[in-house]
Amino acid sequence: MTNAEVVAELERERDRRVLSIQSHVVHGYAGNKCSVFPLQLHGFEVDAINSVQFSNHAGYETVKGQKLTEKELEDLYEGLTANKINNYTHVLTGYCGNVTFLQKIADVVKDLKQKDPETKFVCDPVMGDNGRYYTPKELMPVYRDLIIPLADVLTPNAFELGELTGSPIETEEDCLKAVGELHAKGVKTIVVTSGVTGAQTQESLRCYASVQGSDCYRFTFPRLMGQFVGTGDVFASLLVVWLDELNGDISEAVKKVLSSLQCLIRKTSDYAQLQVDTNSRAMCELRLIQSRKELLWPPSCDKIHVEKVGK
């Protein structure tokens, strides 16, 4: 890009405002700390509600902090409503720690959609990964019965997809069948972000994206060294950006998201390896700020392969 094009992009006005209801950490990156910055970088206004406020993410030895209650969420939303400032083009949700809070999120989304049916609800149904829950199991039926019917875009990993549909997801065939079941419940766009073990190798990972009544895509990309907290939150926020920018073109949107994430993870992994002698979780925090150029302008990446797959 030329300097003039860079300046023009940075000065471009975007009439977009996101209500982001996710976790928050004081130090490091998870939840809203991962999602708000990429959205703002792309010119989206963001109103953030923190479902929890913790000192740091759960990868550390000690975690301290507070959890927002459903009554406190209700109070915040009532304040927005009373002042007639509950005007959103998008709602983005992530980690939620208890059933009643998640039920109240459903009430908020219903009210916003009744006010403006064009409001897009992007839901990351955070429950667990790698075969285990790290949230209460009681959240699952709330996601399945209340949240999913409201969602325009859903971004589960394979474990979460399996829990929501009642069948374990081990192969590509399992994945596509389960995606079809969620489409039947009304979710227009589904991106399975990770964890289809039978479709992965030691060198590569895969994710899948599908639009109801249209094509389904398989994305194959390099497996990078390390496991880092917050990558799913970055994924969801960038997906909001690129689906909006590309008018719902799921193939190109997910490719751009993956391109930015590959750069972010590689930069984080390289830094963590250089600091390996310190043996500290703090050295493994996402290099989010240091990757702002790649978050804003995803580089072309010939290592991300996109193919159509049958449903």
Automatic annotation (TrEMBL):
InterPro entries: PfkB_dom, PyrdxlKinase, Ribokinase-like. Gene3D superfamilies: 3.40.1190.20. Residues 5-267 form the Carbohydrate kinase PfkB domain. CDD domains: pyridoxal_pyridoxamine_kinase. It holds the Pfam family PfkB. Keywords: ATP-binding, Kinase, Nucleotide-binding, Transferase. Its EC number is 2.7.1.35. The keyword Kinase applies. GO terms for molecular function: ATP binding; pyridoxal kinase activity. It comes from the Eukaryota. GO terms for biological process: pyridoxal 5'-phosphate salvage. One of its GO terms (cellular component) is cytosol. Belongs to the pyridoxine kinase family. This is pyridoxal kinase. It comes from Caenorhabditis remanei. The lineage of its organism: Eukaryota, Metazoa, Ecdysozoa, Nematoda, Chromadorea.
